[in-house]
Amino acid sequence: MKFFRNLDPSTIQIRTFVFLLLFSSFTFVCKTPEVKKAPVVEVKKPEPVEKVVEQQDPNLAFLESIEDGRELPESDKWKVEQYDVFTEDTFPSYGPANATIDFSKVDYPLLNAAVFYVSSKERKSLGLRPFKYSERCEQAAFGHAQDMVTYDFYSHTSTVNGKETLRDRLDLVGITDTYSAENIINSFGIQYQGGRAVFTPTQNGGPFFSYTKAGAPIPNHTYLSLAKAVVETWFNSPGHRKNILNPEFTYMGAGTSFYKDKKFYDIDKVKAVQVFTAKP
């Protein structure tokens, strides 16, 4: 080879070493990279609550609240003990239930109670036993409503690890081995009449919706009127109606969570949930 011609042996040896070194370096650098496999989605049994919390984003506030005592929001208008005082017939006369909702400070326990009593009244009017209140059902319902708002989804299947199914959510609050079902809804916070055209805040030049341009703002719901609107919509859906009227379900708890719909002029909306079980 010309590369080695007219060279003394020592020079040939050095150049051979350099050539081999370069060749070995070249083969190392050009080594075919490993092909990373696509992650495999596995269905696993939910781990204990404390482990789930440790592995998740620390902003999962409600998941932590279940672990730390299963506490619902505080309210000066509605306490759990009042479920033993009011009935589906007397609740509508309760003053705070008829107050207009301030979306900046919603009294969730009161709104959850309104949904509970309106649902129970519908059952009673059709000859069924009214629901018995379950605080654990309310915890599961309220948590799912919050998650749907926080993580921007609308489904019976949660995107939160460890809370994917209703069974998961009931296990977290301590309800096991029981017949159960769930209703969900995404509804307006204002007293909008379905089918009517509205003028938007942009068209009105102010932060409100109306039926006429710059006309009277469509008012916010009261706690009771929102509950009636939500339950009426469920009743117009065969599957949801069947859950509410199923005589196998003795216990129920409702949960709600408000948000502003950024896809439509920040209109105030609410995601609501009912959880039904055969035992508390």
TrEMBL record:
Boundaries of each SCP domain copy? Answer: 121-264
Pfam short name (any one) = CAP
Superkingdom classification of source? Bacteria
Q: Which PANTHER family match?
A: SCP DOMAIN-CONTAINING PROTEIN
> What is the protein name stated in its UniProt record?
CAP domain-containing protein
Q: What taxonomic classification does the UniProt entry list for its organism? A: Bacteria, Pseudomonadati, Spirochaetota, Spirochaetia, Leptospirales
